Amino acid sequence: MKRHNILNILTATLLGFAVLSANAAAQQKSLKEQLVGAWTLVSSEITDKDGTKQPDFGSNPKGVLIFDASGKYAQLLEQPGRPKFKARENLRRDTPAEEYGEAARGYAAAFGTWSVNEADKTLIRLIEGSLIPNAEGREVKASVSVADGELKLSGTASNGVKVDQLWKR
């Protein structure tokens, strides 16, 4: 009888370990799977080539970054407090370029395709459309870390400026 109880305990223990291992494997998602969804901007900081750091889009930026499972993304960033346009019948068409320019300085928008390099934890975005036309057609790479509902992106722009962003779910 003791041998029978020991076998039952051993079997139950092994079965428990098997279930825990299966659950852990099921919860282990690829980097791509972890990125899919919508993210809200917490902070964006730039570091100039001389090492000077400053907030990008102000001290309380707003933004959204959306990755879909098919490989498309959209990113919008805004510095709160941008000057409002003067009232006009059609704001988009009738606003003078100078007013648009001031508003655009505090705003960034881009969309395109995305992929990841799982081995080196790199996000690769191909910009198809952007508020800044010069960015269109560029491939942008950033190192990625995802933990506890936060996404950290760190990359260097073509002008040598380092950009660090923190996003949350």
How far apart the termini lie comes to 54 Å
* Biggest β-sheet description: 8 strands, antiparallel, barrel
Q: Which series of helices and strands comes N to C?
A: HHEEEEHHEEEEE
Gross geometry: elongated
What report would you give on this structure?
With 169 residues, the protein is an alpha+beta fold. The chain has two domains: 1-28; 36-168, Lipocalin (Beta Barrel), CATH 2.40.128.320. Helices cover 26% and strands 41% of the residues. An eight-stranded antiparallel beta barrel has the order 1-3-4-5-6-7-8-9. The longest helix has 26 residues, at 2-27. The chain is elongated, with a radius of gyration of 23 Å. The termini are far apart.
Question: Which terms summarize this structure?
Answer:
about 170 residues; alpha+beta; Lipocalin; 2 domains; eight-stranded antiparallel barrel; 4 helices; about 25% helix
Topology:
Layout: H1 2-27, H2 31-35, E1 37-47, E2 53-55, E3 62-67, E4 72-78, H3 91-94, H4 97-105, E5 107-117, E6 122-130, E7 139-147, E8 150-156, E9 162-168
Antiparallel strand pairs: 1-2, 1-3, 1-9, 3-4, 4-5, 5-6, 6-7, 7-8, 8-9
